Structures are given as structure tokens and as C-alpha cells.
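Key idea: predict the complex, not the pieces.
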Amino acid sequence: MSRNGIQLDRVHQGDCLALLGRLPDASAHLAFADPPFNIGYDYDTYDDRRSSDDYLAWSRRWMGEVVRVLRPDGTFWLAIGDEYAAELKVLATRELGLTCRSWVVWYYTFGVHCKQKFARSHAHIFHFVKDPAAFTFNVDAIRVPSARELVYGDKRASPTGRLPDDTWILRPQDLPDGFGAASDTWYFPRVCGTFKERSGWHGCQMPEQLLGRIIRASSHAGDVVLDPFAGSGTTLAVAKKLGRSFLGCELSESYAARVTERLGTISVGDPLDGAAEPLKSAPATKDGRRLTAKRQPRPKRKPSATARRGKATLVK
Ligand SMILES: C[S@@+](CC[C@H](N)C(=O)[O-])C[C@H]1O[C@@H](n2cnc3c(N)ncnc32)[C@H](O)[C@@H]1O
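Result:
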């Protein structure tokens, strides 16, 4: 299958602006983008130190193209760091006409420890839609067990669970009742060096479970999922496993080649990597826990100094 001669179900090596420019209007159902955050991260090809004006002008161009290639009922999820979250949200809504359905905070563990400031343990993930009256949101595909069920073992808990909602959590281990499953602060451990899931060659690899929630919620089997910044290829790998068509772009030749390798090792229907419900590790309550507490895996060595989600150069 192709779009304007562009092959689907693969990663394309090159500048996403060139790829996006060749895509017809309204050709993708869902776009997920995790662009460089302009924080000086050491990618192999891309220079992540631009002036703010330059970065914002570039963001306006590629985001504008993403909006153009999205179908009228399409969805755009954007992951971004603190530094540009506010400006990119304004750009998306005020200039590009998108509607923000949720400002999700992805809380993650295993960020880089800082000596003189709080360690970064979150990223922002915006859920934008083109038409607030017509978009895909598959509620049943992304239900989570409620705290009522998971923590309190309450018989009144809905057996089908509930949607994640908006509760801020600092650290799961600080909460007497464990990290609430029903929250728009999403808890997925960062893909650590020791995790089986870790590719080992891209420091910004996102967890498959996080992409699983996004792709399940905002697309149907057979839909086209677009990722202009493929990186290690997580979006494309998860789209493939979930039976979606996909299209990715990656500037780096080396990363793109490895993404192609990664995609070659997986098949439609394969399970996603990582724990689907990390919250089942929530600690006991006074009523006793129904589930056995399980510790998260601990890294045997320190995370890479260049791990972006707690970028070393930002640690002052
Ligand atoms: C933050 S990483 C994406 C990580 C990805 N979400 C994952 O899970 O692996 C951003 C990627 O965008 C790539 N990139 C930077 N500029 C690009 C451009 N103009 N076109 C395509 N890819 C680009 C970088 O090489 C880098 O691999």
C-alpha cells in the first residue's frame, strides 16, 4: 500500500518535512510525534541546540504539515518537554486550529538523579483533535482497573475498569494507597538500560505500553498511524503489533536502518513489551491487598548520562 507513491508500513529515512510535503491531504488517521525537545540532546545526526525562534519556526512548519495530512476526524498526540510545552500548545490550538482534549502528564521513574534540583520525571503529551465533534476515542480499548478495585478490593468496582483521569502523583512509593490507576498522570517506567524491551541504541526510546494506549484509543485496526520522528521506532512497532498501517520518518540513516530491523522482527498480533499494568505493584492498604506487591525492576547501573528524559546537560 502507498500514499502518493510513498510506501506505507515502513520507516523512511530523511527529513520529515520532505516526507510530509509529499503526502496528500487527509491521508492519516493518527499522528504521534515525539520531536527533539531542543535541550541539547546528543542525537547522531540532528543538532538539538537551536535558537528558540528557529525551533519554534521549525515546529510551526512540521506541525502545520501534520495537521494538513490528518483526516478531518484525525488525532494528533504530541510529546514535549517543559521547555516548549506551553508554546507548542498555543501554536497547535491558536494557530493551527486544533482542539486540545487532554494535557496528559507522563510520569516516569528512572530519570537522572540531580544534586541541586528535582529530578525530571515527566513529559507532557498533548491529545489534539482536528474536529472536537468527530474523532476516534475507543474508551473500551484503554480502560484501567480502578483504585476501588485495585487498592481497596471494593466489590462495587466496575469489572470493566475506568478511563484514566487527572490526578497528580509525585512518586508512587509516597502514596499510602499506591499509585492510582485512574489518573492522567500516566505511570510507565522509562525504558531502562536493563529492561528487556530496551533497544540499547536510542536514548529516547518510549515504552511500548504508552504508545499502545495512544494507538488503541485513537485509531482502529487498518488505520494509518504516522510518526514524523521515528527514533527507535516504538510508534511504528506498536502500530504494527496492533494491526494498524503505519508510516514513519527518521533523519538518521543509522537509526532508520535499525528501525527497519526492529520492524522485521515483529509480527501483527505480537504482545506489546513491558507491563500492561505497572500499577499492580501498588502497596498494601489497611484492608490488605488483593494483589501481591511486586517491585519494579531496578537498574543495575546508573542510567546513561545522556538519557534525555532527565538530560544530563540540564542538570545544574
Ligand atoms: C525524541 S526522538 C524520538 C524517539 C521515539 N519516540 C522513540 O520512542 O524511539 C526524536 C527523533 O527525531 C529524529 N529527527 C530529528 N529531526 C528530524 C527530522 N527533521 N526529520 C525526521 N526525523 C528527525 C532524531 O534523529 C530522533 O531520532
